[in-house]
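User: Run a structure prediction on this.
Assistant: Running it now.
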Amino acid sequence: MDCRRLIANVIVYWNTRYIAHALETLDRAGHRLADDDVHHIHPVHFEHINPFGHYRFDTRRGPAKGRLRPLHAATYIPRTASATNATAPNA
């Protein structure tokens, strides 16, 4: 397996953990998402990752072992019934 595939798999894993964490957090706060909306969430997206950057990791800082970093507050844009894939805010 080449390094790019390994990194892509790590990104998918990381995104999957944080998507699950975000959905659980929303659920605990009483914000239930429709199954159809959850069905359209994919962990393969990685626009938030800069694959060409230089990174330095300090393992002494960050969450405790087995814990996740806190979620950022999101800007909620309600989906309208008339939105299509071409006009939806996340398209």
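The CA atoms of residues 10 and 24 lie 21 Å apart.
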